[in-house]
Structure formats: C-alpha cells, structure tokens
Design brief:
By secondary structure, the chain is α/β, with parallel strands linked by helices. The chain has one domain: Alpha/Beta hydrolase fold, catalytic domain (Rossmann fold). It has eight helices and eight strands; from the N terminus they run βββαβαβαβαααβαβα. Strands 1-2-4-3-5-6-7-8 form an eight-stranded mixed beta sheet, sandwiched between helices. Helix 7 links the parallel strand 7 and strand 8. The radius of gyration is 18 Å and the shape is globular.
Length: 328
C-alpha cells in the first residue's frame, strides 16, 4: 500500500524474525533540534495539509531525520515507530501504507526515521558484533529531542495537550513502554504485532536470533539491555509496566498467523515461513498482555484478525484504532 502524496517508493520494509523462531512461538510469553533543518511541501494537493522534513538531536547518535504531516485544527498527533528492518531514507509507514492520510481527518502524523534493530531504546553500549560506531539512544531522541522539536513546531494539540505513540513489531512494545514511562508527554499508545511480554521465557534468545539477521548484521542483543536476567529487560517489558498505564488509552492489535487478504504471490513462501510464525508469537504475547491488563483493571482496545506479520495488516489496525476513537 502506498500514500498518494508520498514521493518515495523504496522497497518494502519487512520487520520480521527469521524462521528459526518457530520454536519460540509458544512463548506467552538530549534535547533540542539540530540547527538549519529544512521544511518542504508546505501545501499538498491544494489543501492546507503540510508535510515537512527536519532533523533532531541524536543524543550522541547522528542527527535523526523526521518526516511529518500536519493540518491546522487537527485534534491529535501520533508518533509512528517502525519495525526491525527500519531504513534510513523513509519510514516503512510512508513507504508501505496510507496512514499519512489520517492528517486529512484529524490526526497529525510524525515518523522518525532509522534505527534498525534498535527497539527504540537507549542501549547499554554499541553493538560490538557489527562494529557499531555509537550506541543507540532512541529513547532519548523520542522523549526529549523529538518532543521538543514537535512542541516548537506546533504539534502538541488537542484537549489533553499530549501525544499518541504507536508502532509495529519492535516499535509496538517500545511505544507502550515509552508512553507508560513518560506520562507527562503521552496519553495513549498502540502496539501492533508487538512483543508485549519481553521477559517471558525464551524471548531473549528469540530476539537474539532475529537481530542476527538485520543489516548491518549481526547485532549483539547483550549490548542493548544486558543478559536476560539484567534489570533493564524487566524495566522495558510492557507487561511489567501495566501498573503505569492506568489512565492511558491502550490499543493492542495482532494477526493470528493465518493467511489473509494481504498474503499473495510472489510472497507466499516468505509469509509462510517467517510472517506466520512471527505473527503467531506476537498473537500469543498480545493475548497474555490483554489478560494481565484485565486482571490489573486496565481497559485495552484490541483488534485481532486473520493475517501475518505484514504491512497491510498494520495499516488496517491503525485505521481501525482511529475509526473507533482511539485518538480522540
């Protein structure tokens, strides 16, 4: 799926684990804007919809590119996080979906770009396996640099004056934790095929295998939050942050691993041996999170449907959330 007014047409950005995760599928388990940033396409299609591109401070990483869509009078701004194979030219959301069109019906859309295999978190150290020259500091970028830049550009809108955040796969569980731990800036979060029970048995190994297959490969997961018994694995587990989500709107979406309307030739083989098993894992984790949220008295908006780990389904999930009032 592609956006009518989105110029780039890069290849699909699949955020997927390798097929070796079949054995894991049973788991229920610094602030400021960089100077001189440019703005483009003040008006699109003769409407008052504005699209801009700018850069924000990378908190020790290179400056982070951001593309955003805004319209006067909109009632909410959502920050969209990408998946495991995030690119450095455009967000997979822009390349593969039409969700930027939400700007025409009330919701400003913001897409930070880059960070493959980052889990949008601050890493303990650079990944030494692939000689990463700096350590990831994505939590700092999103919660400090990006929010400050958006505030300065008038994206803090609506009655609550807070942002929404949503992501798919690795960006899904990151969205939940970022929002839960930064309630002064966020009041709703959505996880689409995310991994919402990261401290579950086997997840550390599953993610290690996945990150071995992401360019520039291989990534060392121990450089992220340390060994599986390290405290940061628990601090970044959405399941263990439910107690901090009360008063937030939370949306959990997942396919069930079965083929649906977006599964067709020539991708059937890939969808079957990667997309299906990966989405089944996301589905079991989503259900576990939903059950834990119910026990703790946290209302959760859910969306489950036939489908695999693929962009068409994530587009549908986000539109479903919007159409049901998630951003209101």
């Amino acid at each position: 799926m592609r956006v009518a007014f989105a110029g780039p047409r890069a290849g699909r950005n699949h955020s997927r684990f390798i097929a070796a995760l079949v054995a894991m599928a049973t788991v229920i388990g610094l602030a400021g804007v960089v100077g001189g940033a440019g703005q483009a396409d003040a008006r699109i299609g003769g409407t008052s919809v504005g699209r801009e591109q700018f850069y924000v401070n990378g908190c020790g990483m290179p400056a982070v590119k951001v593309r955003a869509w805004k319209r006067p009078g909109n009632y909410k701004t959502v920050i969209l996080l990408d998946g495991m194979r995030a690119q450095y030219d455009y967000s997979g959301w822009e390349i593969n979906t039409n969700v930027q069109e939400m700007v025409r019906s009330g919701v400003n859309v913001v897409e930070p770009i880059g960070g493959p295999a980052s889990f949008y978190t601050d890493w303990d150290a650079p990944s030494n396996f692939n000689s990463q020259p700096y350590r990831y500091m994505w939590n700092c970028v999103i919660t400090r640099s990006l929010v400050s830049a958006l505030d300065a550009r008038g994206y803090r809108v609506g009655a609550s004056r807070k942002y929404a955040i949503a992501g798919l796969s690795m960006g899904g569980n990151a969205s939940l934790v970022i929002a839960a731990q930064n309630r002064h800036n966020f009041d709703r979060a959505a996880s689409l095929s995310g991994y919402d029970f990261l401290s579950a048995p086997g997840m550390h190994t599953a993610l290690r295998l996945a990150m071995f297959d992401v360019d520039p490969k291989p990534w060392n997961i121990d450089a992220m939050w340390g060994p599986p018994w390290g405290i940061r694995w628990f601090q970044n587990d959405p399941m263990l942050n439910i107690n901090r989500m009360h008063g937030m709107k939370v949306f959990i979406g997942s396919g069930n691993g079965l083929f649906g309307k977006y599964n067709a030739l020539p991708n059937v083989f890939d969808d079957l041996f990667k997309g299906s098993t990966l989405e089944l894992l996301a589905f079991t984790q989503a259900k576990a999170f939903e059950a834990a949220a119910f026990v703790q008295g946290l209302p959760v908006m859910t969306y489950y449907a036939a489908g695999t780990h693929a962009w068409g389904y994530w587009q549908d999930m986000l539109w479903n959330a919007k159409n049901r009032g998630f951003f209101r």
